[in-house]
Automatic annotation (TrEMBL):
All copies of domain MEDS, residue ranges: 18-177
Domain of life: Bacteria
Listed name of the protein: MEDS domain-containing protein
InterPro entries per UniProt: MEDS_domain (IPR025847)
Length: 285
């Protein structure tokens, strides 16, 4: 299984680790971005720093991080404002997820061609996450790019301003294999095993229902048609309402979902509810 979990900092996610971080205050974002970029520089990766401000303002912010400013690779950090980093649907402030994915792929290829060991970016994603329409499209990018990150030499720290986004930030943070502490109660992300459609971990109780519903409605259409195998071996809790919702949406989208878990509550509920499109399979030992 691909490594995943809850983090207290952005340091040490090597060689690559896709991290979702909800920050409060610019100082926290810069601290986490500095940790993440410094690891990349030390690993020989091409690194990029992206946020909504102007390039000059962002360069000044980077220079305020002592460990980066004094690093030999500091001058080589790519600095971009979000308006230039993301491609957008014409005439809107909604990013184009598939065009953005192509840009990521090209950035990885360029980094490798230039002799780097991979590509890593620290990105404040808040600018393209403010509206429902933006989050709909951003979910597509987060989900699809994580599929790539599971098998290719690149990753990103995706930072979200929780002072601005509040609870809706969890809709996007949950799509990362690594997250900050208490930022989402569950995670849904890619695995490096091609037989596994997704990894589902954490606790999904009634308080997470709205976020879980948004996640499923956005993500299920992106999955392969037919049978989906979901590694839920680290799923600690789920209620009957979430299982019923998963069953309903799986039917709508022509999927059947097998949760691989020995979680007793999930097994018992699946049997009691007589779900048609969701089943539970015990993991092989």
């Amino acid at each position: 299984m691909r490594a995943h979990g809850v983090r207290l900092s952005a340091a040490g996610l090597l060689p690559f680790g896709h991290l979702g971080w909800g920050y409060r205050g610019r100082a926290e974002f810069l601290c986490r971005a500095g940790e993440y970029l410094l690891d990349g520089l030390n690993r020989g990766q091409r690194v990029a720093f992206v946020a909504e401000q102007s390039v000059d303002a962002l360069r000044a912010e980077l220079a305020s991080v002592d460990a980066l400013r004094t690093h030999p690779g500091f001058a080589g950090i790519d600095v971009l404002c979000a308006a230039d980093y993301y491609p957008f649907h014409p005439g809107t402030d909604v990013l184009d997820a598939y065009a953005a994915l192509d840009r990521y792929r090209a950035a990885v290829d360029d980094a490798i061609s230039a002799g780097h060991t991979g590509f890593r970016a620290a990105v404040d994603v808040t600018a393209v996450a403010r509206t429902v329409e933006q989050r709909d499209e951003l979910t597509v990018l987060e989900y699809l790019v994580d599929q790539e990150m599971a098998v290719r030499p690149f990753s990103a720290l995706c930072a979200y301003d929780l002072d601005e986004l509040a609870d809706v930030g969890a809709e996007l943070l949950c799509l990362h294999p690594f997250v900050g502490e208490r930022m989402t109660s569950y995670q849904l992300h890619a695995d490096d095993d091609p037989a596994v459609a997704a990894v589902l971990s954490g606790e999904i109780d009634q308080s997470a229902m709205d976020v879980f519903s948004s996640t499923l409605r956005r993500v299920l259409p992106l999955t392969p048609e037919g049978a989906l195998r979901v590694d839920a071996t680290r799923l600690e809790f789920i209620t009957h309402r979430q299982l019923m919702l998963l069953d309903e949406l799986a039917e709508q989208h022509g999927r059947s979902v097998t949760l691989v878990t020995d979680q007793r509550v999930a097994t018992r509920l699946t049997n009691l509810l007589a779900l048609r499109h969701v089943s539970v399979l015990a993991p092989s030992r």
